[in-house]
Amino acid sequence: MTHRLSRHALVLGLAAALGLTGCGAGGETSSSPAAGGTGLEKTTIRVGALPVPDPVALYIAQAKGFFEEEGLTVEPVTITGGAAALPQIESGALDVSQTNYVSTFLAVSQGKKIKLVADMYQAAPNAFTIMVPKDSPIKTVADLKGRTILVNNLRNIATLAVTSQLKAVGLTENDVKFAEKPFPEMGNAINSGQADAGWFTEPFITANQKTLGFRTVADTMTGPTAELPIAGWMATQEWAQKHPKTLAAFQRAIARAQQLASADRKEIEAALATYTKIDAGTAAAITLGTYPSTLDAARLQKVADLMLEYQYISAPIDVKSVIASAAG
Amino acid sequence: MAAARLLRGVAGVAGFLVAGELVIRFGLSEDLVFPAPSAVLREAVWLPSDAVFLRGTAATLTNWALGLLIATAVAVPAGVLLGALPPVERAIRPVLEFMRPIPSVAIIPLAILLIPVDELMKVSVIVYASLWPILINTLYGMHDVDPMAKDTLRAFGFGRSAVLARVSLPSAAPFIATGVRIAAGVALVLAVSAELVAGGTAGIGVYVTTAGSGNRTDLMLAATFWAGVLGVAANLALLAGERRLFHWHRVRTGAAG
């Protein structure tokens, strides 16, 4: 999930400006030589994740010692969005990071050399919904015609999911207006008349239901988007090639944690308390997606194909080529 | 005098908080959810018992102090040098005037791209932003040196470096201190902004991001409140230091009280 909270910054191409501080790009490489015993190319890795339920496996694996058993020391780093994490894996500030698949395929279509290394989060019914105030005249998806819908990011997973629901009732994205707003601000923005509806995920679905009495108009993960893969773990192609054993160790630990998360919701709730500010009551109430333990190209292909259908990308992407091969 | 001023300050803050509380509780429509000052302050009181927040505050303050220190170490000698060599200053001035107004927050994405070590990236943007107020104030300080005093020392046969050490530097010092104090505020803004944009393992900005993702606006504001408290505390500490070190300067320039 790209979850942009505070991005008030613009890129200004003034490399010279930085150079003057005497703190330009450090030539440091953080790769350590092969560690004895485990044979891992790198034993300490920095992994970027959002403080949301999607990357819970990282924190479960950490708490249960799954990484340690693989000889891996993982340093979780809070990121502010998949799009913001991309330059961080490119610069080497992060080894692996959370990403949402739409962002990944957009980046791949722009020629970025990144690879998906593990699956993370997949949509389940009612985990991503369009919501409106309780007294709104909007009752169905068709009623959204001519309305403004808030999304966390434009031209990303939210707009793709909503557009696919619009198509089912004969509308296109041109029949509505999308506007960007961070999740925590959407409820108030809709109630103050800035928009008519919003695309929400947890814990905001539960929160807006409870505090503002919002009502769900539609689940956006049905029909063509049912069980849509949402988020995964990415690394640069170069990193994946250079660290095949470290990558395999990371993948094994994450897969174990994904299985645990799928088997026992209590594990998820316990972990959420450690890295998010979602309180126990909310954690027990929210609707979660699923946590697949294998990265399946056929499933992911659906995302790339939808993106092509709605012209998020101009040429087809063969998802197999974006997945890091097991051999490195 | 001082007591009356303090009282007025306290009354101002209290009035502001009460007004905020009333507007949010009774003025805002029930359809809008916004934490009232009392709720935010309650969370703020508890925040120091949150280990994650404490670690974050320590990380932010470390970056802040390091950035400010490096900026001072670079900008003061540069300012003194430029101030002592007017032709060089005239040559460099246009570049300075061009770079100074660039919003420092805007270089954060560029820094993320260029600097692979997170802490170094954050310290770098803090250094960049803090350089300007210190450099400019040092330059003003150097310009403000009493020419008569310099000439007098020269007349007695003192060399350039002696004039610099005995007249120019002491005379410019209060200006430099003001520059550092202004930079301290700027540095805190950048320390938190860099965390909000880039994330990280710990920091006040990282805590705010995490609170926002969990729909805890009250916690976001409580953490922001502490950032404000730190800024005020740093300013007061530096101001007290200036008063103590440079009381003679205040007398000379006739600054009040």
From TrEMBL, chain A:
<dbReference type="Pfam" id="PF09084">
    <property type="entry name" value="NMT1"/>
</dbReference>
<feature type="domain" description="Solute-binding protein family 3/N-terminal">
    <location>
        <begin position="44"/>
        <end position="271"/>
    </location>
</feature>
<feature type="signal peptide">
    <location>
        <begin position="1"/>
        <end position="25"/>
    </location>
</feature>
<dbReference type="InterPro" id="IPR015168">
    <property type="entry name" value="SsuA/THI5"/>
</dbReference>
<comment type="similarity">
    <text>Belongs to the bacterial solute-binding protein SsuA/TauA family.</text>
</comment>
<keyword id="KW-0732">Signal</keyword>
<dbReference type="InterPro" id="IPR001638">
    <property type="entry name" value="Solute-binding_3/MltF_N"/>
</dbReference>
<protein>
    <submittedName>
        <fullName>ABC transporter substrate-binding protein</fullName>
    </submittedName>
</protein>
TrEMBL record, chain B:
<feature type="transmembrane region" description="Helical">
    <location>
        <begin position="182"/>
        <end position="207"/>
    </location>
</feature>
<dbReference type="GO" id="GO:0055085">
    <property type="term" value="P:transmembrane transport"/>
</dbReference>
<dbReference type="InterPro" id="IPR000515">
    <property type="entry name" value="MetI-like"/>
</dbReference>
<keyword id="KW-0812">Transmembrane</keyword>
<feature type="transmembrane region" description="Helical">
    <location>
        <begin position="98"/>
        <end position="117"/>
    </location>
</feature>
<keyword id="KW-0813">Transport</keyword>
<feature type="domain" description="ABC transmembrane type-1">
    <location>
        <begin position="57"/>
        <end position="238"/>
    </location>
</feature>
<feature type="transmembrane region" description="Helical">
    <location>
        <begin position="7"/>
        <end position="28"/>
    </location>
</feature>
<feature type="transmembrane region" description="Helical">
    <location>
        <begin position="64"/>
        <end position="86"/>
    </location>
</feature>
<keyword id="KW-1003">Cell membrane</keyword>
<keyword id="KW-0472">Membrane</keyword>
<comment type="similarity">
    <text>Belongs to the binding-protein-dependent transport system permease family.</text>
</comment>
<feature type="transmembrane region" description="Helical">
    <location>
        <begin position="123"/>
        <end position="140"/>
    </location>
</feature>
<feature type="transmembrane region" description="Helical">
    <location>
        <begin position="219"/>
        <end position="240"/>
    </location>
</feature>
<dbReference type="Pfam" id="PF00528">
    <property type="entry name" value="BPD_transp_1"/>
</dbReference>
<protein>
    <submittedName>
        <fullName>ABC transporter permease</fullName>
    </submittedName>
</protein>
<keyword id="KW-1133">Transmembrane helix</keyword>
<dbReference type="GO" id="GO:0005886">
    <property type="term" value="C:plasma membrane"/>
</dbReference>
<dbReference type="InterPro" id="IPR035906">
    <property type="entry name" value="MetI-like_sf"/>
</dbReference>
